[in-house]
Structures are given as C-alpha cells and as structure tokens.
Amino acid sequence: MTVLYRLAADAAAIAARFGAQAAAADPWAGGTIAPGQFAPVLTTGREFVAGPRGERQPMRMVPRQWGVPPPPAAGDPARGVLTVRNPDSPFWIGNLRNSEFRCLVPATSVMVWGRVDPTTGKRRQLWLSPTDQPLFAIAGVWKDSEVPSFALLTCEANAAWRQAGQQAMPAILPGEPEVWRTWLRGDWKRAEALLVPYPSSLICGG
Description:
There is one protein chain. The protein has a single domain (5-21, 28-44, 59-130, 141-205), classed as hypothetical protein yedk fold, CATH 3.90.1680. The chain contains 5 helices and 13 strands. A hairpin with a 6-residue loop joins strand 7 (109-116) and strand 8 (123-130). By secondary structure, it is of the alpha+beta class. The longest helix has 9 residues, at 177-185. It has helices spanning 11-18, 90-97, 159-163, 177-185, 188-192, and strands at residues 5-7, 31-33, 38-43, 60-66, 83-84, 102-107, 109-116, 123-130, 136-143, 149-156, 168-170, 172-173, 203-205.
C-alpha cells in the first residue's frame, strides 16, 4: 500500500502543468506527503456551489487531507483510508460514479517498500516515478467528510511494483489532457477503464 509520495513542485508549477486555477496565495512549495497531511488535488467539482456543474467549470487546485475517514464497521475509526482497492465497494462507488468527486492527485514520485533484504532483515524504501512525466497525476477520489479528504485509486501492479513485492500500485494516469478530462468528467465506465498498470518500461527509481 502507498504510504508516502512526493510532490516536488510548487503551486504555480502544478497549475501550469495541468491547466488548473490556483489561489494566488497558495502556500504549497513542494514536499513529501504522509497520511493525515494536506496536499493539493485537482478537481472540476462544485463543492461549495449548489446545483449541477457547468461544462465550463474550470479545473481548480484545492487542499485535501490524505486519508478518508473509514466506514463505521472499520476497526480503527481514527485511521484514514489511503487507497481504493475495490472501486465497486458500496463505500466508494457512489462518489466514483459522480465525477465531481473524482480528482487528480499530482505527484513526482511514489514510495514503495521493497522486498526484505536477507542480509539485514529490513525492507528498503524505493521511490518510483514515470520517466516520461516528471510531474504526473494519480487517479483520486475525495469525500466531503468533516474535513474534506481524498484517497488514491489503485490497480494491478506492473512489473516494477511486483519486483518490489507489491500486488497493487497507484493508478498513474497518462500525461494527456484528454485522459485527465476523462477522469474528471467522463462517465464511470470510461473513467474506470483508465485504472490499468502504468508501463513498467517507463518507471524508474531506486
């Protein structure tokens, strides 16, 4: 499971990359994001305005907390849900079918725990990123809880993630604006089709 990612770009660079609107005084200067922390996400929703979304609703960069409050049946209500492993779950499907709750989560690398080193008995942190996208987007979804929060969508692991001993990986999206629009505005069938492993040949790190 993804428990750390980096976004080594400031608010202006993120807005320019994705064609989004950002507040002039947005304080994001770049850094590493851990569970429970706030980070920028990109949305075309109308969270603060009643009524349906217009076709010209712009993409906006807003802060959200990483980790959605879990369902009541969860054992630890204080531990946020970081990733979506089963998008068909009743806990997620309503938000995912409503495209206003989908978001892009910008990142520059993702941490994955590697396999146990037999000589030290410890697992090493591996930071992986696409070679063709220095600043990329992970498919995300947010919930309007007491504190608006988000989770990352996952998909089957590619060879790079499997080599590290992982069965799933973040759903990294291709870098085309049309793909981003599909995730943010498309019907669920088209959006769900984007949840596929990123080519392992385009992943580097160590």
